[in-house]
Amino acid sequence: MRALVALLFLSGCAVPVPLDVSSREPVCARRCLEVQAACISRAGIAADRIAASNVLQACRENTGQCLSTCPAK
Fold it and tell me: What is the pTM of this model?
């Protein structure tokens, strides 16, 4: 499995970083997830696996912060 994830990173495809958005206002949550998608795409162009992992971690943290600003449903 790790080899597949590494291959996906190196090929320019990134794995989604799941976050629970069910309790957030849908339009705001959608905007946060769009930003997350753009962020994740940068992991595919990272120089190596460690850099890609760091980008994905930053994407998850930033998306979590964005979602925390969304009002509850």
Answer: 0.67
β-sheet bridge partners, residue 72? 24
Q: For residue 36, what are the contacts with CB-CB under 8 A and spacing of at least 6?
A: 17, 19, 59, 60, 62, 63, 66
Q: Number of structural domains, the chain?
A: 1
- 8 vs 53: CA distance, rounded Å: 12
Helical packing angle, 2-11 and 49-68, nearest 10°: 90
Residue 73: inside a domain, yes or no? Answer: no
pLDDT digits (tens, 9 = 90+) for 1-56: 344 344 444 444 455 556 788 999 999 999 999 998 888 887 777 778 888 888 88
pLDDT 10s digits, 38-53: 888 877 777 788 888 8
